[in-house]
Design goal:
By secondary structure, the protein is an alpha/beta fold. Helices cover 62% and strands 6% of the residues. A 6-stranded mixed sheet has the order 4-3-6-7-8-9. Strands 1-2 form a two-stranded antiparallel sheet. The protein has a two-stranded antiparallel ribbon with strand order 5-10. The chain is elongated and about 95 Å long.
């Protein structure tokens, strides 16, 4: 904890200071925008950007992760609170803090218990499907704010501001980096400046609304923002604990997955190592801090963390500087913020979340593994049709179901010897030597309750196919080079295979048994005298020992 501060170098200060200023400029409009997505007063987003990054700096392991409001968790908050409180109401603020408390407690406790392995419960395609569905939901939810009304009753001044802002932001994203590079700016600086385009757009549109008094013409604005620090208090509603527990658990799960993705990506670029359990502690502390300071669930933002990194951040001090600048922004009169137009905010939200739509993973999954592609599309559909919480649950179920389905269908190969060598390969892929009376079978998976039936069925099918081809089988050699575990069900299956083969006059042999597997088998009756054949050190030994009893084939 705070190892980065103990070893802080003075030369890192300039980068941290510059990054802190730039990220703070992003956080002010972004925090308010994501608070609106969550169905909360805009100031909640600013409150959620003060104490959480400081708390994360105490426990987290990423040097450049920017913790604060994020689109996906904001949408999940909105979905969780919709049945319980009106958007923007005092009760919604209390319940949002309660959600942060539940999520923070779950994350912190998970860190103490070293449960970082839960990151593997969602596959990359399923995570992609969830974020794509969430991006589409958020975009749809912001269209009315962007246009100043429903599609059937568009408010022209609002639509001009919203669509104009969206067009400018898209143009900046598409070509500003290239344009700044053409002017001679370093690539890193050009990328950082391009990410500040939303700040410039919001400043210009706010000035236009205030100067032309467009609020009187019907353009929706943020409204009054209270100045000063957030009240430090834990507010909770006793009657809402139960309905918030499952949403809080799912939000905690998504916080961890989203933050882990951002932290790992940037740590790889910096040549650093992320400690998963420290991340859980840091994110838990951040959400507990948000709960007591009028905020809502927070997480590590991929886009904001990337800005922090490219702007020169070296340590979490950059995030602490950002938090201090937001405190400063709240300490001065905030009248200027009240003129910020909601259509422009909606444009910044839409452009940010559209970048989350992931066609690349869908394309790669479709080419590589259609079951992954199907899981991605099903998760996206689940989010859009069933809701955010149900989409998360569906994603977890699909990830686990895919693992179980694959594990229940292990790859099994009949192998033969590469001529002139002691190497054995699949007979369907290579030109190999085989023994007519010997079936060499390699099982490329552990033997456990979920796949033993498939193994037995496959062996039975091979023996029947050999008999139909007029081949007599006298020996079956199970090559166990890929087997690291045999559970009790797998042991019973091997024992039954041995007994069944013996009744047909066939000997079962084992080859290349790994040490831990052999230790267990030696305590069983199978190697206590029941095995019809032998245990060979290698497949080559088995081949040489049995070739005198069998004829050749190629």
């Amino acid at each position: 904890m705070l190892l980065w501060l103990k070893h802080y170098r003075r030369e890192a200060l300039a980068g941290d200071l510059g990054a802190g200023i730039i990220v703070a400029m992003m956080l002010v409009p972004q925090g308010m925008a994501y608070a609106i997505v969550a169905g909360l007063p805009p100031v909640s987003g600013l409150y959620a950007s003060i104490l959480p990054p400081i708390a994360y700096a105490l426990f987290g392991s990423s040097m450049v992760q920017s913790v604060g409001p994020m689109a996906i968790t904001s949408l999940m908050v909105a979905s969780s609170l919709a049945p319980l409180a009106a958007p923007g109401s005092p009760l919604s603020v209390i319940l949002a803090g309660q959600l942060a408390l539940i999520a923070g407690a779950i994350l912190f406790l998970s860190g103490l218990l070293r449960l970082g392995f839960v990151a593997s419960l969602l596959s990359r395609p399923v995570m992609s499907g969830f974020t794509t569905g969430a991006a589409l939901l958020i975009t749809g939810g912001q269209l009315e704010a962007l246009l100043g009304g429903p599609l059937t009753a568009v408010h022209l001044p609002s639509a001009i501001i919203g669509l104009g802002s969206l067009l400018v932001l898209w143009a900046a994203k598409a070509g500003l980096v290239r344009g700044l590079g053409a002017l001679g700016l370093p690539a890193r600086l050009a990328e950082t400046l391009s990410r500040l385009a939303p700040v410039v757009v919001l400043i210009v549109t706010t000035a236009a609304v205030a100067t032309l008094n467009l609020a009187a013409a019907g353009v929706a604005v943020v409204g009054e923002i209270p100045s000063g620090m957030p009240p430090i208090a834990l507010l909770a509603s006793a009657e809402h604990w139960r309905p918030l527990l499952l949403p809080g658990l799912l939000i905690a799960f998504m916080i961890f997955l989203s933050s882990q993705a951002a932290a790992q990506s940037l740590a790889h670029r910096r040549g650093e190592r992320i400690v998963t359990n420290h991340e859980l502690l840091g994110l838990g502390a951040a959400n507990l801090a948000s709960a007591v300071s009028g905020g809502f669930p927070v997480t590590g933002s991929i886009s904001r963390s990337a800005v922090n990194y490219t702007a020169g951040a070296n340590t979490p001090l950059a995030s602490i500087i950002s938090a201090a600048l937001i405190v400063l922004a709240l300490s001065v009169p905030t009248t200027w913020v009240s003129w910020l137009p909601l259509p422009a905010l909606a444009a910044t939200i839409i452009l940010a979340v559209l970048g989350m739509i992931d066609f690349t993973t869908l394309k790669d999954a479709w080419q590589h593994d259609r079951s992954d592609a199907a899981a991605l599309l099903a998760t996206t559909a689940g989010v859009l049709l069933l809701g955010v919480e149900q989409g998360v649950i569906l994603g977890v179920v699909l990830s686990l179901a895919t693992v179980i389905w694959r594990a229940s269908r292990p790859h099994i190969a009949v192998v033969g010897r590469i001529p002139g060598s002691d190497h054995f390969r699949n007979v369907e892929r290579h030109h190999v030597e085989t023994l007519s009376d010997v079936l060499l079978l390699r099982i490329d998976a552990d033997l456990f309750f979920g796949n033993v039936e498939a193994v037995v069925d496959h062996l039975d099918g091979l023996l029947k196919a050999r008999a139909a081809d007029g081949l007599t089988t006298r020996h079956v050699v199970v090559v166990m080079s890929a087997i690291s575990l045999i559970d009790t069900t797998g042991l019973y299956a091997l024992t039954e295979i041995n007994r069944s083969l013996q009744s047909e006059g066939i000997k079962l042999h084992l080859a290349e048994v790994k040490g831990p597997v052999m230790d267990r088998l030696q305590r069983s009756d199978l190697l206590g005298g029941q095995l019809g054949g032998q245990v060979f050190l290698s497949t080559a030994d088995a081949f040489r020992a049995l070739q005198g009893e069998a004829s050749w084939s190629i």
